[in-house]
């Protein structure tokens, strides 16, 4: 028997006799493998991008909101009735072990004035824990403190957009005063830029003040219910569901809801949204990979086609090889070797072009480039499999030729 | 006379009552109808007959390319008529060499690589195979044409490459199917002379031809008709040519090849 190396040499020699044809056949596989690698890489990049943006929101975050009202069978939407109390907030902080921080958030729209400008924005009353819950660092200055919340201090943390609209570029707002509804507040800090919120709004177009000050000065008197939401962070991302269940049980007990009764609050879990987004990105990845695999399959059919032509063209050669002692198995191996060589060369070039395309596209979209080694291995393995699978039929056809007929073939 | 498959025999070919029947539609075609023959080592046998006489079928069976429908065929003492395709291939590789009318060289492949081909299938390493191929080409007078491709060679030279390819495995039997069919008369004689030399070297040659003047160079003549051997006689015609060729030097052969 011939050595495998020798067989590969013979196969490459035979393929090089028809350079253009071999090149075009290989091209089909190059496009297939390249597409698989590039597409999966793009999908993975998109997924990583989604993951990044959700990390900036905080995937261990829960939002507790007042639930629907129900009067005589007419059910209002979420938040149509205020049901959460300040005591509920304290209970969540103290009694649910999976909860790390909980912060109230009440907001209203108000006109804010600086020395130079005025700007209508969202004024939010909250507590310092909100910055932890929302994973929101301070760019300059500081947060307001728990003591300032207790003292109903007139201090404010401004979002980036508000700073841009109220102060000249380069000016440091920390230490200056702004007026909210004509009441002066000291600016103690500027929050880092957070970008757009999940729904397309601007997260940075906001002024944050202590919730007590908000109740007393902006809203006009302390309310018994929290007219807003409670932002909660779980101790870890894994504990998010635990925290959610803990809060639900606690609030049902506190609100004396009987088993089977509807909740008068709801707990939203952003990790659900995140995983839904992740899942849709994964779906897109598999969809792209599927389309790319189809093109690899088409490349394989190209190989089969050209190998069938080659077997027919070389019928006499096959007859001669058989006459001088090539066994059917050796003929089979020779043609299989050729189709596998086509597929593997295509696979190698496909990896190169796939990585090239992926890095170009990720550069354009500003995504991280993620080449998954397992995908590269699968693509190459698949292309070799395509070579064997689609080469098998022509090679078998060649090996089954009758040497007498083959020698007479014109 | 019954040829037992276990009987040891000196004959290279011992065929007994070979039949080959093809089904052409509803009609049975008896391509071989009870052929028995024995060929000794070193014989130069010509098989003659019109087309349809069964000479090609006999040749294919003797060449282990085909199997008889019935009958026994001992080649060098081995019963080969019932071997599998794989086993027949091995027999062809080790014991037989083929020379065809249309040369059947691989195009775009050098003479030495063409000749080395059977050795590759025999599992001989590339270097040794090329060495032995070069020696075989030397033997047929093409020692200076090793790297030439078939397209760069004349018809006579191509047939000599083919003979070198048949020789390179040191076979016991060379089967030549109309080897001069595509050659002019002068080149034909060179090729026949070469085959005769092989006979002198102890290799059995079986030649199929329809040209009586070519068959005349054989030491034995078999005539076939309707799937039967109708004549089997020994003749002396080869002697004169053998002498003529032995006086021919290699450079003269080469020159003749170049002219052709």
SSE layout and pairings?
The complex is a heterodimer of chains A (410) and B (260).
Chain A: H1 4-17, H2 19-57, E1 61-66, E2 70-71, E3 74-75, H3 86-95, E4 99-113, E5 118-126, H4 129-133, E6 138-141, H5 146-150, E7 155-158, H6 160-166, E8 177-180, E9 183-191, E10 206-210, H7 211-218, E11 228-234, H8 240-254, E12 265-269, H9 270-313, H10 315-323, H11 328-365, H12 373-399, H13 403-408
Parallel strand pairs in A: 5-10, 7-9
Antiparallel strand pairs in A: 1-11, 1-12, 2-3, 4-5, 4-8, 4-11, 6-9, 7-10, 8-9
Chain B: E1 13-24, E2 27-39, E3 44-48, H1 55-62, E4 70-75, E5 78-79, H2 85-95, E6 96-99, H3 111-121, H4 126-139, H5 155-167, E7 173-177, H6 185-200, E8 204-208, H7 212-215, E9 220-225, E10 228-234, H8 238-246, H9 250-259
Parallel strand pairs in B: 3-8, 3-9, 6-7, 7-8
Antiparallel strand pairs in B: 1-2, 1-4, 4-5, 9-10
Structural write-up:
The complex is a heterodimer of chains A (410) and B (260). Chain A has 410 residues and is of the alpha+beta class. Chain A folds into 2 domains: 4-53 and 276-408, no CATH class; 82-263, no CATH class. Chain A contains 13 helices and 12 strands. In chain A, a hairpin with a 2-residue loop joins strand 8 (177-180) and strand 9. Chain A is elongated. Chain B is an alpha/beta fold and 260 residues long. Helix content of chain B is 37%, strand content 25%. In chain B, the strands form 2 sheets. Chain B has a 6-stranded mixed sheet with strand order 6-7-8-3-9-10, with helices on both faces. In chain B, helix 3 packs across helix 4 (126-139), helix 5 (155-167) packs parallel to helix 6 and helix 6 packs across helix 8 (238-246). Mean pLDDT of chain B is 85; it is low at 1-8 and 238-260. The A-B interface holds A 1-2, 6, 17, 316-317, 319-330, 403-404, 407 and B 60, 63, 65-66, 85-86, 89-90, 92-94, 96-98, 100, 104, 106, 108, 117-118, 120-123, 126, 165, 169.
